[in-house]
Structures are given as C-alpha cells and as structure tokens.
Amino acid sequence: MKTTLLTIGLALTIISCNNSKTEQKAADNTAETAAKAENTATNDQEGGKAITPVLDAYLAVKNALVNDNQEEAAKAGGTLATALEGLDISQFDADKQTELQEIVEVAKNHGEHIAESEIGHQREHFEALSQDIKDMTAIVGTDRALYYQYCPMYNDNKGGMWLSASEEIKNPLFGAKMMKCGKVQEVISL
Fold first, then answer.
1. Helix, strand, or coil here: 174?
2. Taking residues 74-86, what's their average pLDDT?
3. Rounded to an integer, what distance in angstroms lies between the CA atom of residue 151 and that of residue 170?
4. Which of 72, 87, 136, 176 is most buried, judged by most C-beta within 10 A?
5. What count of Cα atoms within 13 Å lies in the side-chain half-sphere of residue 87?
6. Angle at the Cα of 103 (from 133 to 66), degrees rounded to 5?
7. Residue 184 in 3-state DSSP?
8. What dihedral do alpha carbons 61, 67, 71, 72 form, nearest 10°?
9. Is 64 helix (H, G, I), strand (E, B) or coil?
10. What is the signed CA dihedral for 158, 134, 80, 125, rounded to 10 degrees?
11. What is the pLDDT of residues 126-167, one digit of tens each?
C-alpha cells in the first residue's frame, strides 16, 4: 500500500512538472508571438512613415494632372523620382526588400518620364505609377487613408486607376475634360 501511494505520488509529481513545463512553454510561445506581432506593427507604422515623401510627391503629381498643369506635374514627377531614390528599403524584412526594390525601380522610371513629358504621356505614366504606389502601400503600409479610385472610360474604355487622399472624385487621367469620371473602389487605411 505504501509503495502504491509512493508510486501514485511520484506519478502526480511528474505529471505536475510536465504540466508546468507545458504551461511555461505555452506562455513563452504566446509572449514570443505577441512580440513578433508588436514588431510587425511597429515596422508597418515605420514603413508607412518611410514612404511619406513618396506619397506626398505622388499626390502632388495627381493634383497637378487634375488641374491640367503639365509644368507642376513635371516638377512633382522629378520630386517623386528623387523621393523613391532616397527610400531606405533596408529597414524592411528581407523577403519584402526584393519586391520593394522592383517596385521602386519601375515607379522611379515613371516619375522620371512624368518629369520630362507632355501631359498626355504624363497621364499614361501616372496611371501605371498608381498601381506601383498601391502595391508599395500593400507591402509597407501608409501614413494616411488613401482612396483607390477607378475610371472605366480611361484608355479607350479599358479603365484606369489612381490613389487619392480624398474620397471626392477628381480625375487626374482626364482632368477638366471628365473631372468626375470615376468611383471609389477601396479605402486603404493606416
């Protein structure tokens, strides 16, 4: 009887130790997961802030095209190319860096073309650039709410999109010619 009680006591002690180890391991995993989530959230916030100059320049191009102002669009396109060149992608995870580098290269090229082109060509590059900027915000986040807007009539009814800081439709792809053509497709938030 003593042996049986001693065996049961020893078994309960072992089970209790194992449960404590399992609970501690679960607590450690939970803490590690929370730390990773906090780190990811911090990186996303920093990423959103990192592209502030890019978004500012992009929106300046958009506003110039809304106003049919080729010279202002060219100036903002140059600013955008410079902002993209200065974007430090080393702060992002390695798996994001390769994709970001590709987007930055293409978007910078669009900015340079906008800086050197007549308004029709600026609008073509702006529409393509808009997808690059949308893709970039999907990877690194944004520092502000953006409205993904779409006009089905652009490019011989093939459609075209852009991002705006305002929900109100002011079409940069047509300017005064068709200022209100388009609708909000998606809200991209912080």
1. coil
2. 97
3. 10
4. 136
5. 32
6. 30
7. strand
8. -40
9. helix
10. -10
11. 999 999 999 999 999 999 999 999 999 999 999 999 999 999
Give the DSSP H/E element, type plus range, for residue 151: strand 146-151
Is 25's pLDDT higher than 70?
no
Asked whether the beta carbons of 162 and 126 are under 8 A apart, the reply is yes
3-state SS of 71-129 is: HHHHHHHHHHHHHHHCCCHHHCCHHHHHHHHHHHHHHHHHHHHHHHCCHHHHHHHHHHH
User: Looking at this protein, which amino acid is placed at residue 46?
Assistant: E
Check if the beta carbon of residue 164 is closer than 8 Å to that of residue 122.
no
Q: What is the value of pTM for the model shown?
A: 0.76
Structure token digits, residue 134: 């949308």
Pairwise CA distance, residues 158 & 55, whole Å: 26
**Packing angle between helix 119-140 and helix 52-66, nearest 10 degrees?**
150
Rounded to whole angstroms, the Cα distance separating 11 from 64 reads 77
Q: What is the pLDDT of residues 38-78, one digit of tens each?
A: 333 333 445 568 899 999 999 999 999 999 999 999 999 99
Give the pLDDT confidence score for residue 28 in this predicted structure. 52
